[in-house]
Amino acid sequence: LGLLYLGIGLTVWRYLATKAGQTYDEFGGPLQILGLLLIMAGGIGILGGVAGMIRARSAGQQARLFSPLGRLLLGVALAFGIFFMIVPGYVYALTYVPMLANGHSLGDVRDLNRMAYDFHSTLKTPHPYQAPWDTWPILMRPVFFYLGGDAKIYNLGNPLIFWLGMPALAFVLYRALRFVRVRVEQGTANLAVRGRITAKEAAPLFVVLTYLGFWLPWAAQPRILFLYHYLPALAFVILALAYVVDWLWHHERRWARAVAVTFLVAVAATFAYFYPHLAAVSVPHWLDESYYWFPSWR
After folding, report:
1. pLDDT per residue over 204-240, tens digit each?
2. Which H, E and C letters describe the chain, residue by residue?
């Protein structure tokens, strides 16, 4: 099916572009977009078919094209290609379909992406509300989006979520690796790792690794940064907190459930307290002044 999609897509794209005498910068139109989508669907179909063949189980040895280790490594390579390259690229390309269907070309798409890259790679002029990547977890420097007297839109976030998120992530990592042991071998200084990670531990480990994947790459970003760049990683901080709340709720000690409830109530109260600054609600001056807990929050 993947080969069929790929063949049809290439044929449609090539035929229509040749018939119209179009260049790359002139490419556009619903039928050519359909051809492009068929090509992408074909690539996904082929990769999926190969992955299915590798994962197939047989009673004998006839259908085994690779050794167990080879199947594992190829499966990992295919999963990486599909879920970290093909699928994200496919979804990203779909966002340009309305633009292409309304008279723009692939050249316009290329130019937009080039301008976006140039903007983000050269934006180094200091800004009063910039915040380095390593200050985001402690909520050091928020961003004002709107200023209108005592009505403001302030990208502050909930301090309890930010500050308790780091201990929560550490606890989640401990829970994920609690059956894994690492020691240094005497004489060779090699690391010896033993233990296991079951499906139950894999989920919290995924949360931690994904958080780091969304956060740490910003350390190598040349442009100036702001707190809102932390938002994708913050989603996994919230997942870590939810894991801790669930663990407390099902803990055998009575105090654990009380801690979970106290945390949820405190988070809700903090959100209500800061809501005027999140939604440009006018408040008395004394209440507005109470929001700046630290000088860096002004």
Report:
1. 999 999 999 999 999 988 889 999 999 999 999 999 9
2. CHHHHHHHHHHHHHHHHHHHCCCHHHCCCHHHHHHHHHHHHHHHHHHHHHHHHHHCCCCCCCCCCCCHHHHHHHHHHHHHHHHHHHHHHHHHHHCCHHHHHCCCCHHHHHHHHHHHHHHHHHCCCCCCCCCCHHHCCCCCCCEEEEEECCEEEEECCCHHHHHHHHHHHHHHHHHHCCCEEEEECCCCCCEEEEECCCHHHHHHHHHHHHHHHHHHHHHHCCCCCCHHHHHHHHHHHHHHHHHHHHHHHCCCCHHHHHHHHHHHHHHHHHHHHHHHHHCCCCCCHHHHHCCCCCHHHC
